[in-house]
Design goal:
This protein is of the alpha+beta class. It has two domains: 100 residues, PDZ domain (Pdz3 Domain, Roll), CATH 2.30.42; 139 residues, no CATH class. It is 50% helix and 24% strand. It contains nine helices and twelve strands. The strands form five sheets. The protein has a four-stranded antiparallel sheet with strand order 6-5-7-8. A two-stranded antiparallel ribbon has the order 1-2. A two-stranded antiparallel sheet has the order 3-12.
């Protein structure tokens, strides 16, 4: 190994030990490793060089980076579940005019305890139970009002909305908004392993689905991707909300980085793995000229993407102000 760097950007510390230079950089996201002989033009055939290893060994080296990012995301989700995270209760904050809850006589301050005799403790559970019964046209709610428990039949109303992927979705609503009442949920270390694994897999599925929607044009890049500027604002907001918000942001960024890095684009780890697959089939590496061309193409695509998402960040944050300046 010739270089081992933690973070990106300007170097804060640098120390050389043996043949390896270690450095700590300003931006604490990811890192960089420069292995001996990892470029065909520099490869001299020594045993400790990257290209001296078999395709299988090189795959393990390349895949280790995204795998560690992925595991880091899982670990942070696990930590959040143990530390505790805030969630809304099922207390009614307000009623929407013309919807079933208002017609059935629900009032702000009522606490919904069950939907069709299925207990609900948190707002997200309440939403899930209502959606399960959307074909029924109505739901039976168990409501706590003061010291009294009531049974209320509430009709459902179907509305169209956009989901997190920007795709149209039909929702059945009863017309209530949550009360600003939060409780903290904690789970045991063992239970948190399974819950963190489920959260990690769900986020993985959503991310790859999002990439597919981007490629097929179903999802707008402007609305769905964040660049360095937007990540800075997200990090600032998370820091103001506390430790759990920061851990959640790190978990999501770490998982997203791992998934993005495995895309089959030259320069990214997924691109190197793709080229290894070609080498395995051909039983010999690509020519230096071909590899350089693919690398330059991948690097150009990556730079173009960074420019586009940064431009979108600027428009998202300052577009209105820029428009006012132009108009003036």
């Amino acid at each position: 190994m010739e270089q081992f760097s933690l973070g990106f950007g300007p170097r804060l510390l640098r120390k050389k030990k043996g043949d390896t230079e270690y450095s700590l950089n300003l931006i604490p996201l990811g890192g960089y490793v420069k292995m001996a002989g990892d470029n065909l033009e520099e490869y001299k055939g020594k045993n400790d060089e990257y290209f001296s290893k078999s395709p299988g060994k090189r795959f393990q080296i390349i895949f280790a980076g995204p795998l560690l990012n992925y595991l880091l995301g899982f670990i942070f989700f696990w930590a959040i579940l143990i530390i505790g995270y805030p969630t809304l209760t099922t207390k009614v904050g307000g009623l929407v005019n013309g919807f079933g809850a208002q017609t059935a006589g629900l009032k702000p301050g009522d606490k919904i305890c069950a939907v069709n005799n299925r207990k609900v403790d948190f707002w997200q559970d309440l939403q899930k139970e209502i959606q399960k019964n959307k074909s029924a046209g109505s739901v039976d709610l168990t409501v706590l009002r003061g010291e009294s428990q009531l049974k209320v039949k509430v009709s459902l109303r179907e509305e169209s909305a956009l989901d997190t992927m920007g795709q149209p979705r039909h929702l059945s609503l009863i017309g209530i908004t949550p009360f600003d009442e939060l409780v903290e949920i904690r789970h045991g270390p063992i239970e948190s392993i399974f819950l963190a694994a489920r959260k990690t897999l769900e986020l993985t599925f959503i991310t790859y689905k999002g990439f597919w929607f981007l490629v097929t044009g179903k999802l707008s890049m402007r609305e769905s991707m964040a660049g360095p500027l937007e990540i800075f604002f997200m990090a600032s907001k998370a820091a103001s909300l506390g430790l759990v918000a920061v851990l959640h942001l790190i978990a999501v960024l770490s998982l997203s980085l791992a998934i993005f890095n495995l895309l089959p684009v030259p320069v990214l780890d997924g691109g190197h793995i793709f080229l290894l697959g070609i080498e395995k089939i051909r039983r010999k590496p690509l020519e230096i000229k071909t590899e350089r061309m693919l690398t330059n193409l991948g690097f150009s695509l990556l730079i173009t993407l960074v420019v586009l998402v940064t431009y979108n960040d600027i428009l998202r944050r300052y577009g209105e102000n820029i428009h006012k300046l132009i108009v003036k």
